[in-house]
Write a structure and sequence with these properties.
By secondary structure, the chain is mainly beta.
C-alpha cells in the first residue's frame, strides 16, 4: 500500500522530524542525533514544562517519576496522583495529543513506589494505493508504562530505579514498498540519585540546596521492521536547584538542568565525485570522520561522549540547557518561568516558558505556556495542563 493523501504526507513529516521539534536554520551543517520514540523526551507535565524542561533537582512532587524517581523518597505526603494533558504541535495539526497519568504511594519513612502512563496520539491517517483507492485508516499511537522504586540512604541522600515498557505503533501492521512493518516494542530503565540539604543559613535566611542525576531510558533498541533496529532516547540529566525562603510567606527557587542524549552521533561518510557514499568490499559506507553508529546499546552510550565527527566542540553542542525559576506565595500560588536551549546544529529548539500553579485544599492545578524564539515554530502556542490530587488532604476533609 502507498501513502498517497495529503494527511498522510503530513504525518510522515511529523514522525521523523516535527515530533522531535527539529527546526534547524543551518541544515547544511546540522548533524542531528538519530533515535526513535522521541515522545519519551517531551516534558509531559506543567511544572517542569514551565521551568524550561527542568526538573531533575527540583523539590519532589507527584510527577517526579519523569524527571528523577529518587526525589520521591523526600516527598512529604503519603500518596498522590496527577493527570496532565498537552495538545502537541497544535499549529500544524489539531489531533496530536500527549496525556500523562502519574502517582505514588509511600511504603514507610524510607521507601516509595510510583507508576505512570505516558500516551501519545498522532491523529488519524488514511491508507490508499497508487490508484487512490481507500484501503483503511490507522490511529498511530505510542505509550510507555513505568514502575519505580525510591529509597532514602540517609538524611540527605536517596536513590531510585524505574522500569519501563514502550510500545510504538506508528505505521500499523502491513507491507509498504516490499517491507513488512509492525509495532515497535522496547523495555528500558532509569537509574537516579538525589541529594537534598535543607535549612542552610545565608544572611539570616534559609536556603535549600538540591542536586540530582538521572540516566533515563537505558534499554533495548526498537524496530518497526525485521531489517533495522533503532536506538531509543537514552539520556543523562544532571541538575541543581537552590530554594530561598525569603520569609514565612514567600519562597524563590532557581534550577538548572544539563541534558545529553547517550546515543551515537552520525559520522561523516566519504563521498565520490557524484556525491554518493563510497562503500567498502562488504558494501558498508566508508566513514571519513566519526565512528560507526551501528553498535550495541552499552557501546553506543559509551561512545556518545567522544564519537562526534566535529570532536569536542560538537560533543559540547549536544548538551541541552534548561533554566527555571519558581516563586511561591504562602505555598498556595506559584509563578514560574524558564528557558530551554538546544544548539542550532543539534535540533535548534530554543524557547521561553512560563506558567502558574494553584493549590486548593485537596487539588493542585498547574498551567504552562511555551514561547519559541523563532516565528512559525512548530512548538508555538504549546499549552500544558496538570491536575493533581492530594490524598492526605482528602482524608483530612473526610474526617471532618
Amino acid at each position: 500500500m502507498d501513502f498517497m493523501n495529503k494527511r498522510t504526507g503530513l504525518m510522515v513529516v511529523f514522525l521523523f522530524a516535527a515530533i522531535t521539534s527539529i527546526y534547524s536554520q543551518e541544515e547544511e551543517t546540522a548533524n542531528n542525533l538519530k533515535y526513535s520514540v522521541p515522545f519519551l523526551t517531551i516534558a509531559p507535565e506543567s511544572r517542569g514544562g514551565a521551568l524550561g524542561d527542568a526538573g531533575v533537582a527540583t523539590s519532589p512532587d507527584v510527577n517526579s517519576l519523569h524527571w528523577n524517581p529518587a526525589k520521591y523518597a523526600f516527598i512529604e505526603k503519603d500518596m498522590g496522583v496527577a493527570v496532565s494533558y498537552t495538545p502537541w504541535l497544535k499549529n500544524l495539526a489539531d489531533d496530536i495529543q500527549l496525556a500523562y497519568l502519574s502517582g505514588y504511594k509511600r511504603l514507610d519513612k524510607e521507601q516509595v513506589i510510583s507508576g505512570s502512563l505516558l500516551y501519545f496520539s498522532l491523529g488519524q491517517i488514511t491508507f490508499r494505493n497508487k490508484f487512490g483507492d481507500f484501503y483503511g485508516q490507522h490511529l498511530p499511537n505510542e505509550f510507555a508504562i513505568d514502575l519505580a522504586y525510591s529509597r532514602k540512604f540517609g538524611p540527605n541522600f536517596s536513590g531510585g530505579v524505574a522500569f519501563r515498557y514502550i510500545r510504538s505503533d506508528i505505521t500499523g501492521a502491513g507491507s509498504y514498498g516490499g517491507t513488512e512493518y509492525k509495532a515497535g516494542n522496547s523495555v528500558a530503565g532509569d537509574v537516579s540519585i538525589y541529594y537534598r540539604k535543607p535549612g542552610i543559613d545565608i544572611q539570616e535566611k534559609e536556603m535549600d540546596l538540591a542536586l540530582g542525576l538521572n540516566i533515563r531510558n537505558i534499554g533495548s533498541k526498537i524496530s518497526y521492521t525485521t531489517v533495522k533496529e533503532n536506538f531509543i532516547p537514552t539520556m543523562m540529566k544532571l541538575g541543581g536547584s537552590v530554594d530561598f525562603h525569603l520569609d514565612q510567606h514567600n519562597s524563590l527557587m532557581f534550577t538548572t538542568d544539563l541534558s545529553k542524549l547517550l546515543v551515537p552521533t552520525p559520522p561523516e561518510y566519504e563521498l565520490d565525485e557524484d556525491g554518493n557514499r563510497v562503500t567498502d568490499e562488504n558494501g558498508n559506507p566508508v566513514i571519513e570522520d566519526g565512528m560507526d553508529p551501528n553498535v550495541s546499546v552499552p557501546q553506543g552510550m559509551m561512545q556518545s561522549f567522544y564519537d562526534a565527527p566535529g570532536g569536542l566542540e560538537e560533543e559540547l553542542h549536544e548538551i541541552k540547557y534548561s533554566f527555571g525559576m519558581e516563586y511561591w506565595y504562602q505555598n498556595v500560588f506559584a509563578v514560574r518561568a524558564g528557558y530551554f536551549h538546544e544548539h542550532q546544529n543539534k535540533g535548534n529548539r530554543q524557547y521561553f516558558t512560563m506558567g502558574v500553579g494553584l493549590k486548593l485544599n485537596i487539588f493542585q492545578a498547574d498551567l504552562s505556556y511555551l514561547v519559541p524564539r523563532y516565528q512559525n515554530h512548530p512548538l508555538a502556542n504549546t499549552v500544558r495542563f496538570t491536575l493533581g490530587l492530594d490524598f492526605a488532604a482528602l482524608e483530612k476533609e473526610n474526617d471532618k
